[in-house]
Amino acid sequence: MDLFSYCPDCASKISMNQETCSNCGLEIAKHSEEIKKNQTASLKRWLCFWIT
């Protein structure tokens, strides 16, 4: 199963196993922690939306 996130630079959808963003060329591995934080924040917002 591929996990998807969004590039922190250009916000295009990326697969977590990509090495670079296909849109802007950002190196994903260097920014993986930031991407994981964005995923967690998105999940929390989604859960809060459905709970309330």
UniProtKB/TrEMBL annotation:
List the InterPro entries hit by this protein, alphabetically. Zinc_ribbon_dom
The chain positions of domain Zinc-ribbon read 6-25
Q: What is this protein called?
A: Zinc-ribbon domain-containing protein
The scientific name of the source species is marine sediment metagenome
